[in-house]
Amino acid sequence: MRKFSIKKAGAVCLAVLTAVAAMTGCGTGSPDKAKEGKTKVVLNEVAHSIFYAPMYVAIEEGYFEEAGIELSLVTGFGADKTMTAVLTGEADIGFMGSESTIYTYVGGTEDYVVNFAQLTQRAGNFLVSREPMEDFSWDMLKGRDVLGGRAGGMPQMVFEYILRKNGIDPATEVNIDQSIDFGSTAAAFSGGQGDFTVEFEPHATSLEQKGEGYVVASLGEDSGYVPYTSFSAKKSYLEKNKDTVQAFTDALQKGMDYVQNHSPEEIAKAISPQFPETDMETLTTIVDRYYRQDTWKEDLVFEEDAFSLLQNILQDAGVLEKQVPYGDLVTKDFAKKAAE
Known about the structure:
With 340 residues, the chain is an alpha/beta fold. Helices cover 44% and strands 16% of the residues. The protein is built from 16 helices and ten strands. A five-stranded mixed β-sheet has the order 2-1-3-10-4, sandwiched between helices. It has a five-stranded mixed β-sheet with strand order 7-6-8-5-9.
């Protein structure tokens, strides 16, 4: 029995996920063979965001097809839902914040979920104010109302991490509203709620374009390098489908190489079929914003120091009492081979 502990919001998420795991048991998760000899892989992403550009490049440039994979992409709309899809076998691979893998591991899930490729190395959200602030500093949030994120989720925990780095107690010195759904904070802000809101793209840029808000800080820049999102799968799936996972990781690495060697304009053009509702000028603006803050790693290797930092953030947020073993929840084998 693993003697670790999750507290507060993490416990709620954990209870749901471990209950699902208990009902579904330890299935193999073996993928069905798709047409033309390709292997079908179901990937559940936590959200559909320009923040994850290298993955969409790999899709649109045909790298998965070249690797013999027929990829089915599903959006989970939340790490808890993505993790549930992986645990129940609805998805072969999950793409989400790796804090969810820690929650399920701590809960004693036998066939726990292991991270095998890290995509982003910075937070992807931005602080939006009602008024432009050329000389913004984080202490300007003291006593103000901020629309935040879900308790126990990476967006909220990184926000709190930044506040603490700047000597601000998020529990007592800032009024953070965590009651609004992830996808509804921008609309709530437009409707008059809050003095500030923490937004992912395209919502941050959309608020600026409508004159309803102004980006005053990047959480990605101010938090420093943080392992924000990664690809993961059940331990049994990784063990029984090594060739498929390697092919999947190889395709992702080509997407990582592409964004390192192409301009924001070229990246935006490549991923535009994934975002038909976003005009090319806006898409390029958002890609450039992520590009300039060094959002994407050069490789997919999830290093131990990054995993330790993640757990420090969880401990500071009060959702983890004791750190879990890196070697249990992260494998570098696939990413290192893909980078060769």
